[in-house]
Every structure is written in structure tokens, then in C-alpha cells.
Amino acid sequence: PGRVRVAISLRPRNAEELAADADFADCVELQPELKRLKLRKNNWDSDTYEFDEVLTEFASQKRVYEVVAKPSVPDGYNG
């Protein structure tokens, strides 16, 4: 049996966040090339998580499908 793959995608900022010029960079750092997400608690402390795929807020729906859903479609959910 295969293993469960885990992917994360940072959503684009919504209209309210754009209007407020909100920025996630001070608390969320995506490292797609390393397949990591770093959550900063403060200037000195952070937690790092690793995933099978890390997609930025600029990832298209096609890209999300290609890396998340497409690999499992031929085998079906239960293989």
C-alpha cells in the first residue's frame, strides 16, 4: 500500500486583506524548493513543517490538480 501524501497551499489574500495591505510574511514563510513551511511565533522562535508539496498563493488550479489530485486518479482512492 502507498502512503498518504500531504500538500499545503497558501491561499491568496482576500479583498479585505489586500485593502488593509496585510502581509503574511511576518508569520508564514513558504519554502517551496525545500517543501517546507515555517511558522514564526516571534522574532526568535519558529516551527518548521515538511510536506510532500508546498504551493504558493500564486499556484494555478491546474498546478494544484497536477501535484495533488492527478497522481492518485489512475489508482483510485483505495488503490
From TrEMBL:
Stored Gene3D superfamilies: Kinesin motor domain
Keywords of the record: Motor protein
Residue intervals of the Kinesin motor domain: 3-79
PROSITE patterns listed in its UniProt record: KINESIN_MOTOR_2
Listed InterPro entries: Kinesin_motor_dom, Kinesin_motor_dom_sf, P-loop_NTPase
Protein name: Kinesin motor domain-containing protein
GO biological process, one term: microtubule-based movement
Family membership: Belongs to the TRAFAC class myosin-kinesin ATPase superfamily. Kinesin family.
Molecular functions (GO terms): ATP binding; microtubule binding; microtubule motor activity
